[in-house]
């Protein structure tokens, strides 16, 4: 449980680094192009993971993967790119408060998609933990209002709010798809194909709207690309050990880390509600991580549960028994398939 919480906080710190460098880009270099904020990251993913796939042999080779699933990864690459674009673009239209609140929409999206497509089943303690996390997020937004923190442009709030909801929905789709791929295929395949198609589409979109001089200015801030590359590389590891839902709950603390750093770097005003918000979210994460979720092989009748300390148990088709901790795999059941713990 503690490892799950700690891993999620590492991702939050990486997002904090991305947010801080983005602020410096905006203020010192006047760089507000949302597409390019992802372009260098996709290039790094391509150089590291796509080239790794290219030198592999057999069915894990890049060409073999493209022959079988190229159109799926093309759609996933577009979804991932546009999710980043929509949320960053929303800052030009709506307020920071609205973005912080509406960005939480990714959590119900991930829960619903995980329920219907990954067949993940939750218990009451999971929903309690989720509610506590969202309450902590609401407490942080309330603190922003009380201290009069900069609320953003807010020029066309409805458009900005719709952009945030659209971006949150695409993030949810991307995260659940990522969880499926890394559990049934591999982390390297996911990152390699995201790097390939993400670099292709973001390169086209960036080339239409930007100039070479702008590219040179952006290269002066390598830390942001390093943080994004670390986030993309490490997130599949955390998702495999926990879940997409757990990861998105953990990322709620990212804004608080950015705020705490901003107290020293940008002289933000402090409120005790920020500490209350931080610890409330952590309590929600502990509650959520205290009990394992489980996977229904059949959405109507739960059968063939796996336990790492014992053999496979076949439950009667008429039984309504739900074990407290369930282990199974997301792929087709085979005797050689390793046991996978879904936390």
From TrEMBL:
Its main location: membrane. It holds the Pfam family SLC35F. It is found in: Membrane. InterPro entries: EmrE-like, SLC35_F1/F2/F6, SLC35F_Transporter. One of its GO terms (molecular function) is transmembrane transporter activity. Keywords: Membrane, Transmembrane, Transmembrane helix, Transport. Signal peptide: none annotated. The chain crosses the membrane at residues 39-58, 70-87, 99-120, 127-146, 158-178, 190-209, 221-239, 251-268, 274-296. The keyword Transmembrane applies. It comes from the Eukaryota. It is a multi-pass membrane protein. GO terms for cellular component: membrane. Belongs to the SLC35F solute transporter family. Putative solute transporter. PANTHER family: DUF914-RELATED (PTHR14233), SOLUTE CARRIER FAMILY 35 MEMBER F1 (PTHR14233:SF10). This is Solute carrier family 35 member F1. It comes from Gorilla gorilla gorilla (Western lowland gorilla). The gene is SLC35F1.
